Amino acid sequence: MRENRVEIEAARNDKIPELIGYDDIKGDLQVHTTWSDGKNNIGEMVYEAQKLRYHYMAINDHLGTLRTAEGMNE
Fold first, then answer.
1. CA torsion, points 25, 30, 31, 35, in degrees to nearest 10?
2. Which residue has the higher pLDDT, 5 or 57?
3. Rounded distance, CA 17 to CA 29, Å?
4. 59 three-class SS
5. HSE-up of 60 (CA within 13 Å, CB side)?
């Protein structure tokens, strides 16, 4: 759909196919916990990931050197 071929015409005619749905998402590779600037602890994150039937989740908490996010220390 990003090859600049018929996307505009398909959109005008309401014929864009559903490319991906929520059930197609198998995991998340960018989440933060309360160890840095997230709102939930690791256990809560895992619980929600399981509810979403994720196969994987990558926690990417920030280090303390990043001033814009409440980073972890050593």
1. 160
2. 57
3. 26
4. strand
5. 7
CA–CA distance, 56 with 31 (Å, rounded to integer): 11
CA 35 to chain centre: 18
Give residue 74's pLDDT: 62
Helix (H, G, I), strand (E, B) or coil at 46: helix
3-state DSSP assignment of residue 66: coil
- Give the tens place of pLDDT for each residue, 24-65: 999 999 999 998 889 999 999 999 999 999 999 999 988 776
CA distance 54 to 52: 5
Residue 71 near residue 64 (C-beta atoms within 8 A): yes
| Residue 72, pLDDT above cutoff 90 | no
Two structure tokens written together for 21? 């749905």
